[in-house]
Amino acid sequence: MLIVIDPGHGGKDPGGTGFGLKEKDLTLKVARLLIDKLSGYQVEVVFTRAGDDTVSLGARAGLANSRGADFFCSLHVNAGGGTGFESYVHVAAPEGTEGLRAVLHEELMRYYGRFGFPDRGKKRANFAVLRETRMPAVLLENLFIDHPRDAAHLADPSFLDGLAGALAQALVKALHLQPEQKWDPAGEIARLKERGLIVGDHDPNSPVTWGEFATVLNRLLDRKESAL
Ligand SMILES: [Zn+2]
Fold first, then answer.
1. For a Cys-Cys bond, which of 27, 42, 164, 183 suits 33, CB 3.0-4.6 Å?
2. CA of 133 relative to ligand 1 center, distance in Å
3. Taking ligand 1, which is a single-atom ion, which protein residues have CB atoms under 5 Å away?
4. Residue whose C-alpha is closest to residue 26's, from 149, 143, 118
């Protein structure tokens, strides 16, 4: 599973601005927090920009296409008079994309709702990154940078951390991300026992003698030979 996260704007393009905040900084901050939140899951996360870089819309979609991404999520902050959260898919987005967007939208609204922010709805638009990506793609407009109450929350690091956490959980739910397999020494010993390669109980931390090691190897090789 490969997710491309697109922190909106960057470099020469600050995006929306207000109350000393720049959209390009906020989208990158949330993206960076998000990658930590997803570190325990079986997913590869790629950004369309790693820093304060100028990247065209075509290049953002092109990266996702060339990497064969399974999902594209563009992060933005709204401006221009309003408050709250809204999400976008392309005007011609298929059912599957709409389903994924619905999960993301509901999970994020659960977070925004706790702070009393309104749901501005699930919308469709002909945005370039949604049009040019060849996989399910969603664009999220996270509050309004030029609204005093929205901006005050966007300026709060703990609010952004919570937002990244909510987005991570939304992606886990929508894309059915699985937790990373943890190393389980006792479980591995139990599996060897089940397979008949070892007989007794062994403490995962106790050392192995050459006699034991050779016995296990010979049992393994005997099986391989008898299978031929
Ligand atoms: Zn934007």
1. 164
2. 17
3. 8, 15, 76
4. 143
Write down the domain spans for the chain.
2-175, 185-227
Encode the chain (228 residues) as per-residue pLDDT tens digits: 999 999 999 999 999 999 999 999 999 999 999 999 999 999 999 999 999 999 999 999 999 999 999 999 999 999 999 999 999 999 999 999 999 999 999 999 999 999 999 999 999 999 999 999 999 999 999 999 999 999 999 999 999 999 999 999 999 999 999 998 888 899 999 999 999 899 988 899 999 999 999 999 999 999 888 876
Amino acid sitting at position 63: L
CA distance 170 to 213: 46
Catalytic residues: 141
CATH superfamily of this structure's domain 2-175: Zn-dependent exopeptidases (3.40.630.40)
Using alpha carbons only, give the angle 34, 38, 39 rounded to the nearest 5 degrees: 115
